Amino acid sequence: MTDDQLSLTFAALADPTRRAILARLSTGEATVNELAEPFSISIQAVSKHLKLLERAGLISRGRDAQWRPCRLETAPLETASDWIQRYREDWRDRFDRLDQEIQTIQRREKGEDHE
């Protein structure tokens, strides 16, 4: 796998635990222990997920004495959203053209039925 930002973002988003962590961080900063609370996995496992999210640039970790809050970083999500949007627009255009073609065919068939 390449280490380009988009690939790292999608790889990080591929896991439901990491998506749940990001959802939690969307409400505000949290510590590793706070993030681990709802999961039935070890803190070490959560830490591994956090390292992957951090490597992807989706979170950052601060340092305030012993408290190391994690926070959501939205730039990689915005980049992924922009990438998806480009393809969504292409597909929307293709589906619109397909719909127009289907309507043209249906009009022709209706016209042939009345002859």
Automatic annotation (TrEMBL):
InterPro entries: ArsR-like_HTH, HTH_ArsR_DNA-bd_dom, WH-like_DNA-bd_sf, WH_DNA-bd_sf. GO terms for molecular function: DNA binding; DNA-binding transcription factor activity. The keyword Cytoplasm does not apply. It holds the Pfam family HTH_20. Residues 1-92 form the HTH arsR-type domain. The keyword Disulfide bond does not apply. Keywords: DNA-binding. It comes from the Bacteria. CDD domains: HTH_ARSR (cd00090). This is DNA-binding transcriptional ArsR family regulator.
